[in-house]
Amino acid sequence: MSPRGHGKLAATADTDGIESSDAGLVASIGRILKILARPELSKWRPMMVLAILLTITAKLFAVSAPLFFGDAINALSEDQPILLPVLIGIGLWVGARFLSTGFPYLRDVFFAPISQDAMRVVAVEAFGHAQKLSYRFHLTRRTGALNRMIERGSGAIDFLIRFLAFNIGPTMIELTLASIVLGVKFGIGMSIIAIVTVICYVVFTLAITEWRVKQRRVLNEEDTELRGGMVDSLTNFETVKAFAAEDRETERHNESFLTYNKTFVSTARSLALLNAGQEFIMNLGLFGVAGLGVWAAIEGGLKPGDVAAVTLILMNLYRPLNILGWAWREIKQGSVDLEKLFGLMDMKPEVADAPDAKELDVQGGRVEFKNVAFSHDSRASGLEDVSFVAEAGKKLAIVGPSGSGKSTLLKMAFRFYDVEKGEILLDGQDLRSVTQKSLRESLGLVPQEVVLFNSTIKDNLIYGAPDATLEEIEAAADQAQLLDFVNGLPDKWDTRVGERGLKLSGGEKQRLGIARAILKNPPVLVLDEATSALDSTTEAEVQKALDFASKGRTTLVVAHRLSTIADADEIIVLKEGVVAEQGRHEDLLAQDGIYSEMWERQSKGGDEKVVEDKIA
């Protein structure tokens, strides 16, 4: 029986934000050929040629093997059979059969590294391209769906390369040779039956396959929903447990599985129909050729060995034709997988380097927002005409009510978003005129929640400075008040932090994030509510580390607790996307405006003494 197709695939635009490519099978094949023609795969070209030659040679032996067997039977059916011709015929038949099946195994030995390298090239390119897509894309995509799409697409490339090079083309060669042999050696009727059988088989296979491809698309969408939903639920296990939603999530997963299973059953049934139809057509053709051969033998036109040879030829055709049908189905279904992969690789980043972008030249770290305007797609209002300057080496704080645009300003400083109007300058250079890489290498970030890789403390700390020495690492950790904690661990720097750093406390993660920023030693430090999620005791410890990290470099701070930024050289107060107030702490209190009101509310929580100590 043919190998069974399984539903394992691609996401759609409404689940991961990626539009399918309209390339189709022919265009996908063209892109695969371009992949094989790449310079990094050129070292494999001699092996590619050798693999193809082995495949074609194997098909030649497959067609000739039945003829040797027929000659042996004819020699055996003579009135006075001679042993040697019979043995020679049997030996040639066995040898040809062995070579027809053995050469493909040898071919696989040569081709395995080629297909694996092609998969690597495409998967790495797709991964790298996804990494370079804009911030907004990564906000909307689903991690599980994106990962599966790259995995399935690269796997489909391996499959298509193998079957296009070693099954579809060589099988057509074998069919052509077999038809010629049947027509020339055994009569045109044999050739006609074989050709008609092949045509009926191909037409039936293509018709059912097109129907099954539509089923596959639906199955892929449901598979993505099922797997992506499972990853989302398991990733957010804290939220699930906090809301006692384990049973609800389990039922949701069960409903997704039921939907997936229903569609999978439909695709399995259509596959059974396809297999049964193919078997019927092939056996009908086999009956026709065998019957015609028997009739010709009775009439004296063919010998018994010729009838055996004809039957074996068509039976040999049965195997590649059966593989041809399965391969065609899988190729068509593999092209569905490639649609998403190529759709991803064709996406253009919203924020891209200008063609003439230069490396950022940081002199002191002066940051200027000049008449900046920006709005998110889903919001009616945003930032409007925002202007301020963070002088080199100074600390500028941004405060305001939730939703006023504080964090958005910082994201624009990193060029996660581009301004819609105005400009952002760093030492007089418009951020849109420099490369994103050089810009972000000049900035250090400590976010509200430091998210860590599931690796060691050391790996996470050196992420911004991978070449740092142990002395530099320990110095940064000491400045961030992290060193004593690390030295107290059994595995010290080799301690694994768990997924997203869940093995560490909030304060430990924040200090690790601060140490990472200190080790990077950027001219501009960005603090996005870096202590707002901490308790007061931990906040005080972390704030000392932040104050140390801020010395000597330009610092942009978004803060919720005003006590943490009272010593700032400049404070910007945002309200509804505009700069409502601006000045030092004492000046803003004297204005008796928004800042003063915010301060009054927070002061009731006991922040006055902290501030007095900071600004004394």
List the SSEs and their pairings.
Elements: H1 13-16, H2 24-36, H3 45-76, H4 83-132, H5 135-140, H6 143-186, H7 188-235, H8 237-242, H9 246-299, H10 304-346, E1 367-374, E2 383-390, E3 395-399, H11 406-413, E4 421-426, E5 429-430, H12 436-441, E6 443-446, H13 457-461, H14 470-479, H15 483-487, H16 506-520, E7 524-528, H17 536-550, E8 554-558, E9 570-575, E10 578-583, H18 585-591, H19 594-603, H20 608-615
Parallel strand pairs: 3-8, 3-9, 6-7, 7-8
Antiparallel strand pairs: 1-2, 1-4, 4-5, 9-10
Helix pairs in contact: 3-4, 3-6, 3-10, 4-6, 4-10, 6-7, 6-10, 7-9, 7-10, 9-10, 14-16, 16-17, 18-19
Explain what the structure shows.
The protein has two domains: 13-346, Up-down Bundle (ABC transporter transmembrane region fold), CATH 1.20.1560.10; 353-442 and 555-616, P-loop containing nucleotide triphosphate hydrolases (Rossmann fold, 3-Layer(aba) Sandwich). A hairpin with an 8-residue loop joins strand 1 and strand 2 (383-390). The chain has a six-stranded mixed beta sheet, sandwiched between helices. It has helices at 13-16, 24-36, 45-76, 83-132, 135-140, 143-186, 188-235, 237-242, 246-299, 304-346, 406-413, 436-441, 457-461, 470-479, 483-487, 506-520, 536-550, 585-591, 594-603, 608-615; strands spanning 367-374, 383-390, 395-399, 421-426, 429-430, 443-446, 524-528, 554-558, 570-575, 578-583. Helix content is 63%, strand content 9%. The protein is built from 20 helices and ten strands. It is of the alpha/beta class and 616 residues long.
